[in-house]
Every structure is written in structure tokens, then in C-alpha cells.
Amino acid sequence: MAHGYSGDKQALLMRLRRAEGQVRGIARMVDEEAYCIDVLTQVSAVTKALESVALTLLEDHLGHCVAEAVGEGGPVAQEKLREANAAIARLVRS
Q1: Predicted structure pTM score
Q2: How many CB atoms lie within 10 A of CB 66?
Q3: Under a CB-based contact definition with an 8 Å cutoff, are residues 42 and 19 in contact?
Q4: What is the mean pLDDT of residues 40-50?
Q5: Fewer Cβ neighbours under 10 Å: the N or C end of the chain?
Q6: How far apart are CA 53 and CA 73, in angstroms?
């Protein structure tokens, strides 16, 4: 079964690799005792990058997995909606 993000997989992986590099850069900045504001700026950038990945995954999940389950109806649809609501709540709290 293909997940909703399959079409975006390469773009998502590229964003994640870029964020991974940014995190390594932040660690290097801390190790080198860079100016606090410069470190915070980089933390903000990587946070936004990860939020972008999360929103893409959520959009794909709603448009593919949830929509398909709702079309079929029944308890699977209710479970997919519950999962989506929980995922949205986690994103909002973070």
C-alpha cells in the first residue's frame, strides 16, 4: 500500500537531509560557542523546515488516507479521523 506522500517522497527526503545538515551546523555552532542569537536563528530555520515537512505529510494524509477511509465509511473512517485529529493536536502543541 502506497502512502499519500509517495509522490512527494524525494522532495521530503531532500528537505529532511537539509534539516539534518542544519542541525549538525547548529551543534557545531554551539561547540564553537557562536553568538546566542545566531544559534537561535538557525534553530528557528530548522524548526520551520521540519514544520514544512510535517504540514506536507499532514496534507497528504488527509487528502489520501483519510479521504479514502471516509469514502469507505465505517470504523476505519472514524479511526483515520481520530488519528488525524491527534496529529493536528500534536503539531499545534509543538
Answers
A1: 0.82
A2: 19
A3: no
A4: 97
A5: N
A6: 28
